[in-house]
Amino acid sequence: MHDAITTSRGDRGLAAALMPAFAATLFLSAFLLFSVQPMFTKMVLPRLGGSASVWSVAMVFFQGMLLAGYGLAHVLTTRLGMIRAIGVHLLVCLAAAIMLPIGVPASWGAPPERFTELWLIGLFAVTVGLPFFAVSVNGPLLQSWFARTGHPHARDPYFLYGASNLGSFLALLAYPVAIEPWIGAQAQARLWAGGFLVLVALIAALGVVTLRAAPAGAGLAARVPAAPIAGLRRLRWVGLAFVPSALLVAVTAHISTDVAAAPFLWVLPLSLFLVTFVVVFQRRPLLPHRAMLAIQPFLMAAVVASTALPILPMPARIVLELAAFFVATMVAHGELAADRPEADNLTAFYLWMSLGGVLGGAFAGLAAPVLFSSIAEYPILLVAALACRPGLRRSSRADLVRALPWVAGAVAVFVLPVAMRLPLGGLTDTSMIAVVGLAALAVVMARADDLRLAGTFAATLFAATVFAPGLDDVASVRSFYGVHRVATSADGAFRFLFHGTTIHGAERIRDADGRPIEGRPRPATYYWFGSPLGQAVETAREVGGGRIGRVAAIGLGTGSLACHARAGEAWTFFEIDPEVVRIARDPAKFRFLSACAPDLPVVLGDGRLTLPAASPAPNDLIVVDAFSSDSIPVHLLTREAIRLYAAHLAPRGLLAFHLSNRHMELVRIAAAVGQAEGFTVWSRVGRPDAAGKTEHDGASAVAVMVRDPADAARIARDPAWRRMEPETRVAAWTDDHADVLDAILRRLTGDEPGTH
């Protein structure tokens, strides 16, 4: 008996076209599915101060909608016949089309102080939820349809999953390279809507083709119930999907917090995540599973060394962490692919795998910020990645007994000295390198036994993570906007505020004799008297005849800038993170506000959103000093933002931007946006003298904008300041388009005016 698709010349032609037709439709579906994620998240980002957590919550939402889509695909495949399944899916697609083009509703209010994650999920649900859900159904559903066609490869349709993920991968690569730099957000939304309508037409055509190509009767009835899947096997699928998904959220937040909340950094880990699916579901994987298992211990050893001694440049650290993430994900997904069921259970397999992905994303994106006051989930998940190795699953009690002495030795050598707070900070550089090298070597030497490897890595990574020579922790708090760590120097003389890896403020709390400092504290880090920001304040004061009437400062930090205020001046701070406000107002942590300006008002919320209502009268000085770890939120440095500041600036007022950044060149951006809005722009990189460095004064890059060059007379007299020439090499950022990647490349190539 011959299959229906081989009974005539026309049907043979249909058979030949089936595979490319299904592959092309799945490719387009995946391209739309993964291009809408960075597109819409970027639209939302300005509402939440450019926080890296926006993408973490976005990934949790999209994973949840993907699970819902896979659930519908499972129901359509197992409960309905083909004709009804096609009709239901097309109705869902048509309902989603009504929501297009995608955009943020103007009526959607500002985020609340608490439960910001739920507010954000609600925004995603009412805007992009239904279109994303409709597209997410296609992956397993179309593979199931292909399995009914009688095609020679219909018995193993998993290879189409690779085609689908290839579309996802190319969408993610194309977005930061070919879409975001050249196409505005609104145009992107319209193009996406057009692609969605094309996809709906292709799905309808494939439904008709499947009905025609299927063997007699197979296309009309619901599929015969598949063989049951053992509960432990389902849990294993969930676990193997949980770890890579959670690690994806954690590593993305880890990277984007320290560089920028920008699509090109979001898509790097997600692209690697999808590539693993493309590779492991090939009939002959390009990267063998055995090779990934062999490479993983060496990368984990390098992660231990890099964590203990963070001396690698940021690009090198990102490459290392992404490589470790990629190999860990290859191992887990390789185990998943090796355990995939027959085609009859295809949609169930994807459903359980998607459930693991949702739970993993929810753990890292929603639960971890509540459970941990630091980014503890990242090292925990790196250890969990080693638990996905096959040897650990097969370990016996005898294996555990053999591994215990080795792991106990690692704990004694590396964990106990850190836990007992031994004076390791006194070690020489050579001694530190030797100890760290020994820890990495211990991980490599444990690779022959997966249980011993996981235990050794856990011990050494814990020691490397906790190790902080020269600092004693005072407090660590975590919010939607990141982790804030208050620490004191080992000698008790200084207190610091860290956000991510960046110092956001420092205060001397004891003098050389160990006595507590009394009176007004001296601002340090970027705010020392005579620093570029200090000079900007004095310039505004000179314009005002010795006094500044009103000052609006976006970004609070420790409140150091408040000590530049004088009696009779009305200063207002704007801060998006309530935890930062609590830290700055607590005199047991920092005294800048309590000693210099105890009655100074602090407006909670994103400065760009709250400035119009909270500062209706013109300001003589507006300072933009809002950071997220080491990155400035992009939406505060666009033409639309400058326009808003200008509307609340006195005719002779000054705009000052703090632009210090390890990863992006922002001075040219400031010049471009300021000049585009009619301002004259001055810039300076200020560096403290030797005495200042002992007080933790730091270098800082600042741009000052004025309408009339005469209002910058004070800084114009200082040769350290540079009047920026008309900017022709850099495009001014707008809300619709900001090329963050270009700013990073200029920083790497040393194209930084005023820093040479």
Report on this model:
It is a single chain. With 756 residues, the chain is of the alpha/beta class. It has four domains: 16-281 and 340-380, Up-down Bundle (Growth Hormone, Chain: A), CATH 1.20.1250; 288-339 and 389-469, no CATH class; 472-508, no CATH class; 532-749, Vaccinia Virus protein VP39 (Rossmann fold), CATH 3.40.50.150. Helix content is 55%, strand content 10%. The protein has helices at residues 9-44, 53-79, 82-97, 116-127, 129-136, 138-147, 159-179, 185-213, 231-258, 263-280, 289-308, 314-338, 346-371, 377-387, 390-393, 397-419, 429-445, 450-466, 532-543, 578-585, 592-596, 607-614, 639-647, 667-676, 690-694, 713-716, 740-749, and strands at 471-479, 482-489, 494-499, 502-508, 550-554, 570-575, 602-604, 619-624, 649-658, 680-686, 700-706, 722-723. Strand 2 and strand 3 form a beta hairpin. Helix 7 (159-179) runs antiparallel to helix 10 (263-280), helix 9 runs antiparallel to helix 14 (377-387) and helix 11 packs antiparallel against helix 17. It is globular and about 85 Å long.
Fill in the keyword field for this structure:
756 residues; 4 domains; eight-stranded mixed β-sheet; four-stranded antiparallel β-sheet; 12 strands; disordered N terminus
- What's the story with the biggest beta sheet? 8 strands, mixed
Gap between N and C termini: 80 Å
DSSP strand content: 5-15%
Radius of gyration equals 29 Å
CATH class of the largest domain: Mainly Alpha
Please bin the fraction of helical residues.
55-70%
Number of strands: 12
CATH fold name of the largest domain: Growth Hormone, Chain: A
Known CATH architecture of the largest domain: Up-down Bundle
General form:
globular
Biggest sheet: strand arrangement: 7-6-5-8-9-11-10-12
